Amino acid sequence: MDAVSWICLVAAGLLEVVWAYAMKQSEGFSRPWPSIITLVAMIASFTLLSVAMRSLPLGTSYMIWTGIGAVGAFVVGVVLLGEPLGALRIGAAVLIVSGLVLMKLSSR
């Protein structure tokens, strides 16, 4: 498991946040630029995920990719879209991050 695979995986996760936000902004794919950004970021995210999966285990790759996307989308929703921030939502995000850390530690 090399550093390039981990960099690709983190980048893929961050691009998942980009496409999720752009999809929200596309208003059901009715706005062209957010729709284009969504599709390009999706393709790039899946491509980087597939590169990372060449040397990283499937479970690790997929969990970290979706975890970055989930927590990242949560943060973007709160910061940029004014979504509510409650104790249970913070707790859920902390549990996801804890799971990501444990998965990374277990894949040594």
From TrEMBL:
The keyword Phosphoprotein does not apply. InterPro entries: EmrE-like (IPR037185), Small_drug/metabolite_transptr (IPR000390), Small_multidrug_res (IPR045324). Keywords: Cell membrane, Membrane, Transmembrane, Transmembrane helix, Transport. It is found in: Cell membrane. GO terms for biological process: xenobiotic detoxification by transmembrane export across the plasma membrane. Its main location: membrane. It is a multi-pass membrane protein. One of its GO terms (cellular component) is plasma membrane. It comes from the Bacteria. GO terms for molecular function: transmembrane transporter activity. The keyword Transmembrane helix applies. Belongs to the drug/metabolite transporter (DMT) superfamily. Small multidrug resistance (SMR) (TC 2.A.7.1) family. Gdx/SugE subfamily. This is Guanidinium exporter. It comes from Endobacter medicaginis.
